[in-house]
């Protein structure tokens, strides 16, 4: 199969960037999308050109390091699939594919298709955990957790932090990402003591990082390779509102909230 | 050189308790005066860095990925073992200890493995307290599944994403310490050298992968938790970035490398489909709970699997190992698959595959029950192969997965270089010649949460660490070495890419130092590897510059180290004239093709000492003393 690729090339954060066209001959149907780019890069190196920079690590769809936009779709248009798990049999001969990085103010471009997603780490830093030190907690079975709660928490905890939700959102909001963590911890008994302060902290950091607000368009859930549902954002809003009411005084006094 | 493993005296079940009672402690108010460097953010690295921060130490934590949450522990699917005996099926600390020693083919250190089994139960408690969503029964209690090499059900899991959930738990604990200012995180930063001052590991030289800047970092101790070296085979189940550079540079600075020949080939991976293949994807061993492995009895049988009647199928694991059946340990299952394919019974393209068939389980339990247990794995299989495993058996083939060898460490997890600690897959300590399924997660978290926080305190409290800064000559020299290597790579401007050489190295390793090795194949590899390495240094092409984001340059440094490590691996395999666990020498097998150990001569850990480029390594031996269990032929029949 023959393909035409139009790939965003940008040397570093300060470069302006542009699309560059590459013709691909003999693309094998069994290749993954990233393996197709590997083949392109080997060809570029052979010609003395610089290869296309893109991030990937596990190539099994779980580490969350890969991700770029193909013809307007983060990770391509196959549902529940990261770009490393996207195979070429979903494309057809003669297609033109436009590849560009996940675009958001909070995700500066490192090079070509590689971006800086450390803003998502800082959202987790602002409360995305249970405050428990390593040591001798009580026996795991002394805490009964209904299977339904554990399953729902697991659904939300499946988030891989790739940032596709941000790229898909017209507002560049990271609410799906933030809501997923709020839901994972908020659905479990272990997460209850810090439920409201967590939402306040993470919600506040989300805004500080320059992510947009959620207007419930739903593109994020559509693009999510792990099937995180839109309802996690409702939970984020509920906890955030609860937190705003409970911690009004502390927040007004400049406290931790 | 004599190696002192520093195993505490006393009866086995009391050693760790006694160690903790006798160890020196750092005054809580003094902990903030110490800085610990942690390289790696997988289960071992993240749990160690978070725990150090909680104790009050200052921590500098490094990873090459864009965020610590990407470390390859995240890809572990099946589960984590713990001797909880929640199922009332006869499990105990002793049984987990024994299964691990036996699974490792009696080539691991008793005291370390017993400690691992002891702390295993705490890990489940700790992770549950963090909010790790382990699978639950309807009554709200934790669920378990079975794994290879055990007759009890002691594996805890979170769907097929156990590694992900445990890593996210450790990552969240780590992020909490970053927020509190106790841990300083350096993502996209790769360690390129270890700095030793007055005989103690004191710091690292690292490259900022975004700007290319070479920087030095100093601390009171250095902890390496950088994973294994399976990627030296090019194709493996490891992440693309997984590499051995941190441990290898430490080895070149004096840390001994132990048992490199113990490599684990995982039996259930998706077969490769073409030359462009960039990695191999594992299908969790847990699938073997409900899937049956078979090949056609007749050579060259091209019928579709559902048209081959039961009587014409060979369920070879069930036939050869009736007690363990499809749950035979990994090394044994992998070799059995290779034997079937070598005999011309393999299925799929090139005959390099065997069936993993769920049709009986689907008949017995229903499609929904199977989907509940393995749904995400079935989806992943279908995405990659385009085949639906609910209706067609999976095709699987063994692939390089885990490396039991690593830097030599004593009971304290400290290498022979004082101040250099090594955790998780990067060390050699707990799995002997073969690791059992669901034990890697256990070891990573045991080392990070429950062992190193104690043993590093003892090291620091003993004092003697001199004041120094990154202006010390040892740092300057290391920086210069790293900068010169970068310059060399960029100036060769040869005709082949880094991947070209990496693939060629992988081909040598897989065919001559892979699942079955012989004196002849190893000697062939020991000639081919240095030849290829010499070509690499003359003919490699690394485009771009040093002071920029340059992924080819990153790969070049990693592959350069794989060349040296690959050679050492072959030397280690050649000196070990026996078959054990993941090391199978065709000259040493029983009449029915099982591994034949030589306990009289080889009951030792082989710790190799670097003597300089171009010089032969020196072999140091740590005798393995078994005081509590009787060495026997490992049988799963």
Q: Estimate the strand proportion of chain A.
A: 5-15%
How would you characterize the largest beta sheet of chain B? Answer: 5 strands, parallel
Multimeric state: heterodimer
CATH architecture label of the largest domain in chain A: Orthogonal Bundle
Number of helices, counting only DSSP H or I runs of 4 residues or more of chain A: 9
Task: Domain count of chain A, please report it.
Answer: 2
Please count the beta strands of chain B (DSSP E, at least 2 residues each). 19
End-to-end separation of chain A: 57 Å
What does this structure look like?
The complex is a heterodimer of chains A (257) and B (637). With 257 residues, chain A is an alpha+beta fold. Chain A has helices at residues 33-46, 118-125, 147-157, 164-168, 175-186, 195-208, 219-223, 231-246, 248-252; strands at 3-9, 18-24, 69-70, 73-74, 95-100, 109-111, 114-115. Chain A is built from 9 helices and 7 strands. In chain A, the strands form 2 sheets. Chain A has a 5-stranded mixed β-sheet. Chain A has a two-stranded antiparallel ribbon with strand order 6-7. The longest helix of chain A is centred in the C-terminal third of the chain and has 16 residues, at 231-246. Chain A is elongated, with a radius of gyration of 21 Å. The model of chain A is unreliable at 252-257 (pLDDT under 50). Chain B has 637 residues and is α+β, with helices and mostly antiparallel strands. In chain B, a hairpin with an 8-residue loop joins strand 18 (604-609) and strand 19. Among the domains of chain B are: 265-400, Flavocytochrome C3, Chain A, domain 1 (Alpha-Beta Complex); 489-599, Methane Monooxygenase Hydroxylase, Chain G, domain 1. At the A-B interface, helix 1, helix 2 and helix 3 of A face helix 2, helix 4, helix 5, helix 10 and helix 11 of B.
């Amino acid at each position: 199969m023959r393909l035409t690729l139009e790939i965003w090339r940008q040397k570093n954060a300060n470069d302006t960037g542009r699309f560059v066209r590459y013709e691909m001959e003999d693309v094998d149907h069994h290749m993954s999308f990233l393996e197709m780019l590997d083949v392109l890069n080997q060809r570029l190196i052979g010609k003395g050109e610089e290869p296309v920079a893109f991030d990937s690590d596990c190539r099994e769809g779980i580490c969350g390091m890969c991700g770029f936009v193909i013809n307007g779709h983060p990770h391509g248009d196959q549902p529940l699939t990261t770009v490393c798990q996207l195979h070429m049999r979903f494309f057809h001969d003669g297609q033109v594919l436009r590849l560009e990085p996940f675009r958001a103010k909070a995700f500066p471009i490192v090079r070509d298709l590689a971006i800086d997603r450390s803003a998502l780490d800082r959202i987790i830093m602002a409360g995305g955990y249970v405050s428990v030190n390593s040591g001798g907690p009580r026996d795991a079975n002394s805490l009964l957790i209904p299977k339904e709660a554990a399953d729902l928490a697991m659904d939300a905890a499946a988030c891989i932090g790739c940032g596709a939700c941000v790229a898909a959102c017209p507002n560049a909001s990271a609410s799906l990402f933030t809501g997923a963590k709020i839901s994972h911890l908020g659905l479990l008994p272990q997460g209850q003591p810090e439920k409201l302060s967590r939402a306040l902290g993470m919600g506040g950091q989300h805004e500080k990082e320059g992510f947009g607000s959620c207007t419930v368009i739903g593109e994020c859930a559509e693009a999510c390779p792990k099937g995180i549902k839109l309802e996690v954002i409702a939970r984020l809003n509920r906890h955030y509102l609860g937190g705003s009411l409970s911690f009004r005084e502390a927040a007004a006094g400049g406290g931790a909230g | 050189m004599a190696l002192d493993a520093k195993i505490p005296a006393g009866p086995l079940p009391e050693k760790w308790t006694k160690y903790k009672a006798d160890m020196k402690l750092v005054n809580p108010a003094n902990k903030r005066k110490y800085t610990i460097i942690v390289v790696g953010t997988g289960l071992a690295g993240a749990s160690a860095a978070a725990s150090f921060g909680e104790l009050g130490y200052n921590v500098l934590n490094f990873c090459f990925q864009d965020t610590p949450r990407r470390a390859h522990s995240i890809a572990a699917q099946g589960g984590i073992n713990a001797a909880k005996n929640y199922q009332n099926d006869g499990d105990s600390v002793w049984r987990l200890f024994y299964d691990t020693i036996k699974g490792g083919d009696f080539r691991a250190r008793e005291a370390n493995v017993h400690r691992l089994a002891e702390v295993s139960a705490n890990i489940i408690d700790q992770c549950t307290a963090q909010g790790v969503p382990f699978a639950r029964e309807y009554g709200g209690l934790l669920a378990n599944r079975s794994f290879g090499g055990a007759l009890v059900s002691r594996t805890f899991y979170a769907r097929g994403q156990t590694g992900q959930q445990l890593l996210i738990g450790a990552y969240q604990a780590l992020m909490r310490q970053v927020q509190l200012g106790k841990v300083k995180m350096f993502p996209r930063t790769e360690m390129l050298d270890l700095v030793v001052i007055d005989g103690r590991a004191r710091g690292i030289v690292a490259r900022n992968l975004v700007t290319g800047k070479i920087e030095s970092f100093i601390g009171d101790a250095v902890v390496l938790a950088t994973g294994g070296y399976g990627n030296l085979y090019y194709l493996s189940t490891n992440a693309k970035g997984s590499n051995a550079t941190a441990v290898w540079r430490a080895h070149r600075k004096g840390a001994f490398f132990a048992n490199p020949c113990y490599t684990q080939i995982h039996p259930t991976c998706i077969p490769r489909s073409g030359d462009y293949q960039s990695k191999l994807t594992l299908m969790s061993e847990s699938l073997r709970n409900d899937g049956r492995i078979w090949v056609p009895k007749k050579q060259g049988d091209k019928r579709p699997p559902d048209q081959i009647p039961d009587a014409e199928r060979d369920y070879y694991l069930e036939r050869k190992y009736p007690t363990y059946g499809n749950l035979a340990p990994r090394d044994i299952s992998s070799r059995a698959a290779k034997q079937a394919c070598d005999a011309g019974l393999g299925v799929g393209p090139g005959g390099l595959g065997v069936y993993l068939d769920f049709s009986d389980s689907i008949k017995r339990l229903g499609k929904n029950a199977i989907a509940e247990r393995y749904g995400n794995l079935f989806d992943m299989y279908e995405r990659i192969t385009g085949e639906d495993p609910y209706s067609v058996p999976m095709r699987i083939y063994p692939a390089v997965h885990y490396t039991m060898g690593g830097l030599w460490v004593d009971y304290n997890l400290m290498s022979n270089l004082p101040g250099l600690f090594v955790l998780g897959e990067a060390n050699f300590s707990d799995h002997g010649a073969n690791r059992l399924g669901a034990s890697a997660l256990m070891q990573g978290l045991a080392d990070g949460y429950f062992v190193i926080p104690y043993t590093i305190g003892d090291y620091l409290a003993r004092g003697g660490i001199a004041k120094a800064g990154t202006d010390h000559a040892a740092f300057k020299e290391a920086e210069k070495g790293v900068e010169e290597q970068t310059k060399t790579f960029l100036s060769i401007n040869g005709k082949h890419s880094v991947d070209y050489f990496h693939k060629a190295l992988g081909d040598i390793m897989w065919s001559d130092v892979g699942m079955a090795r012989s004196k002849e194949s190893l000697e062939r590899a020991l000639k081919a590897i240095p030849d290829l390495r010499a070509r690499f240094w003359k003919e490699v092409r690394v485009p771009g510059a040093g002071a920029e984001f340059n992924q080819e340059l990153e790969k070049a440094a990693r592959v350069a180290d794989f060349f040296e490590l690959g050679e050492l691996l072959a030397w280690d395999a050649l000196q070990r004239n026996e078959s054990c666990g993941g090391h199978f020498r065709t000259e040493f097998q029983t009449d029915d093709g099982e591994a034949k150990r030589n306990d009289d001569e080889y009951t030792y850990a082989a710790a190799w000492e670097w003597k300089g480029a171009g010089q032969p390594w020196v072999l140091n031996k740590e005798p393995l003393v078994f005081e509590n269990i009787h060495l026997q032929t490992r049988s799963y029949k």
